[in-house]
Amino acid sequence: MKYITNRQEIAYAMNFGRFPVVRINLESSKAGYEGLYEGDLVKVLTPTKSHPDLYAIGRVYYSTDSVSKFYISNDNIGLHDSFDYSDVIEMLNRAQAPVLRAGCTIVVIEDYPRIKMCKVRMMKVSERVSTLSYPCATLEDVPDDFDTSIPKNW
Fold this sequence. Notes:
The protein is mainly beta. The chain has helices at residues 7-15, 85-96; strands at residues 2-4, 21-25, 36-45, 55-63, 69-74, 99-100, 105-112, 117-125, 137-141. The protein has 2 helices and 9 strands, in the order βαββββαββββ.
C-alpha cells in the first residue's frame, strides 16, 4: 500500500493533473449494503477494435466482504420518455467524472468525515477493463517504492 503523507507531494499529485483523483467515504456504507462503500463517479475507457472511443461510467466501490477490495462497477443506464432537471444534473456529473485508463495510476482519497480524517492512497487500475464484466475494473495497490516525489524543475 502506498500512502502519501508529505503535504507538498499530496498537493502535486492532486492539483496539477498528474493523476486522476477519486474520493470514497469509508465511514458510511451504501444504504442497505453492510460493508459496501460507494465513491465518486468515474469514466473508464474500454476501447474495442470496432469502438475505439468506448467507455463505461460507474462508481468506485470498496467492499469488506471475504476479501477487502476496491473496484469500479458500471452504472445502469435506462431510457425514459421525459427529459428534466435530474437528467441535466446527471449529465453534468458524468461530464465532470475523471477518465481512467487500463493500467493508469490514480489518487484515492479515503475519507472519514465523522472523525475529520482522510488518507491519500496511490492505486492502479487493472490492466483488464471491460463493459461486459462485473466489476468493469479493479483497483490494485502500487508498490511501496512508487515515485511520488516532486520533480526538481517544478
